[in-house]
Amino acid sequence: MKKVVFIILLLLPVAGICQSNVNVGIGGGLDYGGFGGKFTFLPSEKVGLFAGLGYNLVGAGFNAGALYKFSTEKKVRPYATAMYGYNGVIKIEEGPASDETYYGVSFGIGIELKARKNENNFWNFELLVPIRPSEFSDDIDRLKDSGYSVTEPLPVSFSIGYHFGF
Does the pLDDT at position 165 exceed 70? Predict the structure, then answer.
């Protein structure tokens, strides 16, 4: 979490210089830290750096990464992304086991849909593939062996958010 705050603090002065290349979003998904917010700085038209912070159902979740936009002039802008941060959680509803957050790399693709009234605002939709640490699957297996009812995680993750450009 300290790393994400540090990255955001580093980007804020740069963002002040290039205000038209900054957006802030609210949404849900890995890149938003769970349910939370995402700050994106675009040092060029096609490259973006972001940090997300939110609540991931067991505590604070964070992610930081980069994205590459394939198109910047159209209403629908596809992009590829890579990030590091939280990409799995285990939440225990009963018993003495504790909740856990897992960290690793995630890769994905997404699209931005520009808003009709303000082109600086947009919807963000993403499909992510989390590369979860082996401890995540080991802990799931241990819980199953201990008799817990475990919902298997999906091999992909989805993200949606709305961004306000400045």
Answer: yes
Residues near 101 by Cβ (< 8 Å), separated by ≥ 6? 56, 58, 59, 61, 86, 88, 89
For residues 80 and 47, what is the distance between their CA atoms, to the nearest angstrom?
A: 10
CA 3 to each of CA 9, 47, 57, 72, 88: distance values in angstroms, whole numbers, following the listed order:
10, 21, 20, 29, 18
122, 160 contact by CB (below 8 A): no
Rounding to the nearest 10 degrees, give the CA dihedral for residues 150, 155, 160, 164.
120
Closest CA to 37 of 23, 21, 53, 57: 53
pLDDT in tens, 108-132: 999 999 988 888 899 999 999 999 9
**Size (the chain), residues:** 166
What is the reported pTM?
0.82
94-112 confidence digits (pLDDT tens): 765 678 999 999 999 999 9
Name the nearest CA neighbour of 129 among 86, 87, 68: 87
Whether the Cβ atoms of residue 48 and residue 69 lie closer than 8 Å to each other: yes
pLDDT single digits (tens) 29-44: 999 999 999 999 999 9
